[in-house]
Amino acid sequence: MIDIGGAIVVASTTTTITATTTTAAAAAAAAAAAAAAAAAAAAAAAAAAAAAADVVMAVVVMLVMSLIEKIS
């Protein structure tokens, strides 16, 4: 009886450890996915900022060229 009870306790503890490990792994995977999504969002924001800077630069160049034409 004691061995069977001991076996049940060991099996139960092993199951609990396995479930905890699985939960921790799932949480780590979710955190990694969230970090990847945040990195992708940051990259998209950087690309949008670069595109906006390009538009501003194009407008500045057009204004300067227009001013040069008027002066000439």
With helices defined by DSSP (H or I, 4 residues minimum), what is the helix count? 1
- Point out poorly predicted stretches: none
Mean pLDDT: 79
Main sheet specs: none
Label the structural class.
Answer: mainly alpha
- The tally of strands reads 0
Distance, first to last CA: 106 Å
- Number of domains as seen in the coordinates: 1
| CA-atom Rg in angstroms | 31 Å
Element-by-element helix/strand order: H
Strand content: under 5%
What portion of residues is helical?
over 70%
> Judging from the principal axes of the Cα atoms, what is the shape?
rod-shaped
Structure write-up:
The longest helix has 70 residues. The protein is rod-shaped, with a radius of gyration of 31 Å. It contains one helix and no strands. The chain is mainly α. The chain has one domain. The N and C termini lie far apart (106 Å). GO terms for molecular function: antifreeze activity. Belongs to the type-I AFP family. It comes from Brugia malayi (Filarial nematode worm).
Structure at a glance:
This protein is mainly alpha-helical. It is built from one helix and no strands. The chain is rod-shaped.
Structural topology:
Layout: H1 2-71
List keywords for this structure.
single chain; 72 residues; mainly alpha; rod-shaped; Antifreeze peptide 4, putative
